[in-house]
Amino acid sequence: MPARSDVGIAGIRRLAKKRVEETSLRAVAAEVGMSYSGLRSFLEGREPYRGTRMKLMAWHARVQHPTAESISTEAVEEALALLGRYLASLQDSKIRGTVSAELMRAVLIGLEGPVLAEVSDAIRKVLKEHLGPRRR
Fold first, then answer.
1. Helix (H, G, I), strand (E, B) or coil at 100
2. Which of 4, 33, 35, 88 is 20 to 30 Å apart from 77, CA to CA?
3. Separation between Cα atoms, residue 28 and residue 19, nearest integer Å
4. How far apart are CA 40 and CA 94, in angstroms?
């Protein structure tokens, strides 16, 4: 059973500091997909911008769970239920739309190549089923 993940910014910062000690600031910045100076600022305590935070969270997930086998089905189901409940609780439809878009972006950031295309096709299919054909 994998260790419980500490996904908050403080936990991500701790992991990034540890990885920098093991490798280098430039190596970790490249792993995350952010600039050297941006990672340095983050490690010094600066709050990351939203896009950078998403990259840091995706990186954290890759490091904590290098293979799919380290992620339990129950954890995924719980996360999906939590996300659904959170989205349903948002009163403002504009905010709900923004959060939904961020959710899609977070999922897509974690995917690559053929898997990304496969998931994109699945998303289109679900949208078509739930929203009907696109009107012109």
1. helix
2. 33
3. 7
4. 34
